[in-house]
Amino acid sequence: MQSASMSEPLIIVTDAPDAADLAAVREQLSRFNFSATGIDDQRALALLVKDPKTGTVLGGLTGRTSRGVLFVDMFFLAETLRGTGLGSKLLRMAEEEGVRRGCHHGVLYTNTFQAPSFYKKHGWREFGEIPSDPSGTSRLFFMKELVS
Questions:
Q1: Which domains does the chain carry?
Q2: N-acetyltransferase domain: from which residue to which, for each copy (predicted)?
């Protein structure tokens, strides 16, 4: 029960959150997780592919590592770079960096219209599916045991 002097909390719904507000939520969650686990090892991970002449980003892989898990959040390569082996190299490099950081497993999701066969080819195992839009497509969840 709230005390008589405490106001109802304000809830804001936005598609443009302030970076400081996001950092505050992240910091509070990190403190909670540390108090529960004694582990404070979350680190961002980015492998960026850039044009050597212009420095323009042509794609890359972003994610994070935390408490023994590599999370792949985004993975994209320009169409001209697909099929060259560069995507396989990036994924392998991310997995290797995850292992260096103490990760035992990797987790990611993709869409049925993106690259599920690419991940399967690299030893990732599908463990879940959620129907999404447009009709007939799904988000597919993958995991992989990382070995050193």
A1: 41-145 (3.40.630.30)
A2: 11-148
